[in-house]
Protein 1
Amino acid sequence: MSKPLKQIHLAAHFPGVNNTTVWSDPAAGSHIEFSSFAHFARTAERARFDFLFLAEGLRLREQGGEIYDLDVVGRPDTFTVLAALAAVTERIGLTGTINSTFNEPYEVARQFASLDHLSGGRAAWNVVTSWDAFTGENFRRGGFLAQDDRYSRAEQFLRTSWELFDSWQDHEIVADTESGRFLRDPRAGEFHHRDQHFDIAGRFNVPRSPQGRPVVFQAGDSEEGREFAAATADAIFSRHSTLDAGRAFYTDVKDRLARHHRTRDELLILPAATFVLGDTDAEARDRAHDVRRAQVSGQTAIKYLEQLWNRDLSGYDPDGPLPDIDPDPGEHTVALGRASVRMFRDPLATAKEWRQKAEAGGLSIRELVIETTGRQTFVGSPSTVATTINDFVQADASDGFILVPHVTPGGLDEFADTVVPLLQERGVFRHDYEGSTLRDHLGLDRPAARNSTRNNDSTKKAAS
C-alpha cells in the first residue's frame, strides 16, 4: 500500500539583500518602498503560500573599509514592515528575522505578541544569533559572543520569551458586559526568570495572542544550530537544496527530535530555493544562463573573491585568471557585516580547489564565481518545476520550499500563475486556506499556556 502524498509547504522570501537579486532587470523595483512589499505579499497570498519571509541586517555591510555598494543601501525595520503588511493581507503568515544576541526577551516578546494580535495569528520569528563586534558596535552591550555562548543565549532568550507569552492564560480576560470592564486574574502576566543570561521579573503587558506564541524558525546549520532547532523550532530555514544533501539533512534533523520528546511532524524543513521558468526547458536554461551572468557582474565576482582571498583584489581583471598569490588566512577580514562571518573554514584549501577547477575548465574569475556560487534550484517549464518540487517533498528531502525570486517585487508572479495551479492539480498543494493562523497553514498545534510563574517549580526556585 502506497503512503499518502505529502502536502507541499511554500513560502516567499522578499529578496532584499542577497546574491540572487538582479538589479539591472528593467522589471526590478524598490527594495524599501512599501508598495514593493505589498505587491510581493499579495502575490504570495493569492497563490495560497504559507508565509512571507523577511531577512534582517543590523548594520550596512562594508568591504575594504567602504560601504558594500553592490548591496541595498538601507534596511527598513522588520516589525514595522510586517505590521503594515498585516493591514493589507488577510491570511499569509508574516515571518521576521530577529536577533537574539543584541535584543532583549521582554522587548521582542512584546513586539511579536502585538504582531500576532494585529494580524489575527500570523506571526513567526526566525531566531538568529550574531557573533561579530562590528555589528555589536551598534548596540549598548556591543562586543561579541563565542559560538557556544551565543547559542546558549539564544536558547535561553527563546525560552524566556515563551515564559512571557505563557504568563497569561487563555481565559484571563473576560468581558463583563454589565460594567463594560474586563475581569482578569490578578496574577495575569506575572513572570520571574533568572539564568546566566537574563534576570528579569515583572508583568508582561500583552495578553495571550491567537497562536499562543509565534511560530519559531531557525536557520543555523552547525551542529549547535541543528540541535537548537530540534529542541525548540517549529521550522528550519535550510540551505540544502539538492536532493541528496536535502535527504541527508532531513534525516539528521528529524532523527534528533525524539530525544527532545518531539514527533517528526512537529518540525518542518524548508530549504531556500531559486527558480527560472520558461515555456520550454531549453528556454528556461537559456534564461537561467542570462540570469546568472546578471547576478554575478565583473565587480560582484571580484568582491566575492576578496571574501575568500581576504585581500584587496580590485586591480584584477574579472575576465582574467585567478590571483597567483594565496589567500590571507588571518583573523582580520576585508568584509564586515552580513559577510563578516568567515565563509570558508580553510581558505588555502578552498583556493587550491578553485584553481584546479579553473584550470580544468579554462575559467576566468567571473566564470568561476558563477560556477561555484550555485545555480538556480529549479530551472525548466512550469510542468518540469512542479514535478521536481513534488519529487523533493515526496522523497523526504524537504517539507516544502522558501522561494527567492531574482526580481523584486514581481518575480514571484509567474510562479504563482503557472506552477502553483499544476501542484494543485496533483493534489499536493491547497486550493484555499483551511484556517486563519500560520499554525493552521503549517499543520502545527497551538501550544497550551504553560504559565511558568504559576506552574514551573524550577523557575520559581531559580527566581527565589
Protein 2
Amino acid sequence: MVETVERTDLHTLPLAPKNPLPYRQQLKAVRSFHSGLETLRDAGGPVTRLTLAPKWLAPTVVIATSPQGARDILGRGGGHIEKTRVHAEMRHLLGPNLFDLTHEPWLPRRRALQPMFTKQHVREFAGHMAEAAQTVADTWTDGAEVDLDTECRKLTLRALGRSVLGIDLDAHAEVIAEPLHVTTEYITDRAMRPINAPRWLPTPARRRARTASATLHRLADDILQECRADPTREAPLVHALIAASDPATGQTLSDNEIRDELIAFMLAGHDTTATTLAYAMWALGHHIDMQDKVRAEALAVGDHELTPDDVPALRYTVQVLHEALRLCPPGAATARMAMQDVEVDGYRVEAGTMLVVGIYALHRDPALWDHPLDFDPDRFSPRNSEGRDRWQYLPFGAGPRSCIGDHFAMLEATLALATVVRCTEIRSKNPDFPIITPFTTVAAEPIRATVTARGGRRR
C-alpha cells in the first residue's frame, strides 16, 4: 500500500496552471472521460486546472495525467483525499459498498473483504469460467458474423453467475443489464450536473432509478437467502461474504451490507471484463499473427478445459489482455476530492478541489509510450516492462483504494480469451473500436466479427 508523504512547505508551491482552452471546449472535454482528457492534457500539460463555475456551485477541477500526479492523488491513505459526488450518488441509490464508501467506514470493510480477493483465493471462484466461454463459443455458427460486445457480455454474465453467485444469470440477463444501465446513467447524470432536483422530488428519472435499484436488491437478496438456506450451494463469493469478518474487530457483514456488495460486484464484474475481452478479440481479429500466438499457447497446455493451473503457461495471452486494458481501460478516469491542501506533481492543490486522474490519457501519452496507439502486446513482456513507472499503467487504479477484484478479473479474462481463441478464428470487420464512458468504458456500437471454427475443444 503506497502513501504519499505530504510536504511541509505546500504554501511555496505554485497552483496548477489554468488550462488555456476556451471555456466551451473545456466544458465539452471534461464531459468526455477518455478522449476529452487527452485534449485537456495536450493543451494544458500533465497537470492542469479548470474553473467551470463559481466555487459555491461546482468545485475547481485539477486533472493529472502524469505518473507522479497519479501517485500523489491515488497513493494517499487516510482521509486527506476522499470519494466524490458520483460516489455519494451511488451510495444513496445502490447502498454503501467498497467502491463508494468514505474512508472511515471503508477501512473495516476493506479489511474484511481483502482476504477473499487474494491471488490464491480467487482461484476458488474459477470453477465455471472456461466452461462459460466454451458454451458461448459453441453457439457460434461456423462462418457467422457476431457482435463481440454482445457475446462477451453474455460470456461474463454466465461466468459471474455460475462461478461466484451460484445462479444461472442467463435467465436473469434483462433483470441485471437494464437496471444496471438505468442506475449508472442516473448516478452519472446527477454527479455531472452542478444543480439537481432534491432527492425527495419524484421525477420520472428518479422513479426509474429507484425501481431499478429495488430490482437489483431483490435479486441480490434472493441469491443471499438461497445460499443461507443451502450452505452447500456452489456460490463461493456469497459464502465468502457471509463468512467475512473484520480481523481487527471480528465484526461480520449484515445482510444489507452483503446485498450492497453483491450489487457492486455485479456492476464492476460485468461491463468491465466484457469490454476488455471484446477489445482484445477485436484487436486479435486485426492481428492474425498475434491471434495465432494466443491459439498456439492455449493448445500447448492440452485439450482439457482450462483452469487456473494453466495460467502460468498463458503468458502471451496475459500480455494481450494487458495491452487491451492499456488502450481501453475499464475506468477511463477516476476522481477524488482534496479534503486539505495537497501536492500534485509539484503543484499545490487547494482543499475542496476535485482531483481527476486521466487514466485513458495516461495510457496513451506519447511521452510515456512508444507508438502509443499501436496494439503491441510485446510491450508487456518481462523484458520490455523492466524499468516502467508503476504509475503509468493503472487499469485497476492504484494505491489503498485500488480495485479489489483485479486478480479475479485477470483470471476470468485470461481463461475466457484463451478458451475462445483456441477453438475459433476471429476476423474483425470494424476498422476501429469506438467507446463511450457513461460510467465505465463500454463499446459505443456493435463490434462485428466473422468467426470460424478451428482446432481445440469446440465441437
Protein 3
Amino acid sequence: MFSVLYSFSQKEKDSTSIALDQSPIIANKTLVKKEIDPLRPSKAAFYSTILPGLGQAYNKRYWKIPIVWGAIGAGVYFYVRNDKQFDRYRDAYKSRLAGFKDDEFYGLISDDGLIRAQEQFRRNKEMSLLITFGLYALNIIDANVDAHLLQFNVDENLSLSPHYQYNEMENTSDLGLTLNFKF
C-alpha cells in the first residue's frame, strides 16, 4: 500500500527562498585597470644610475636597497683593501731598490716575494673594481627589469588554474586546467 502525495503551491516565494536583487551582477566594475607607463622602466634605470638603490625605491622594492648597497659597498671595500696592500708592498720594494733596509718586510720576504705580492694585489684590486662595476650594472638592470615586470598583467581576467571535479556519471574524478581569458 503506497500512497503518492502531490502538492502545488500558488505562492511565488516561500519562507525558504532567498530574495535576490533583480539588477544584474557586473564583475567588471570591481576591477581597476592601471595604465601602462612606457617610461617607467627607463626612469627606474636612470634613478639607479644616479644613486644605486634609488631605482629599487622608485619600484617600491625597498627590501632590495640594503642588498644593493651591501654588494657595491663590499666591492669598494675589497678594492680599497687591496689597494692599500699593494701600496705597502710597492713602497717596501721601492725602498729596497733605493738601498734602504728598514722596510717592514725586511728579513721576512725577499725581493722576488715583494714583486709577486705586488702582482697579486694588483690583480685582486683590478678584479674588485670589475666586480664592483658589474654589481653597479646589475643594480641598473634589476631596476629596469623590475619596472617592466610591475606592468605585467596578472589580474583574474587572465589566469590558468588547475581544477578537480568529481564526475558523478562515471563515478570517477577528473583533473584538468582551466584557462580564463575575459575581455
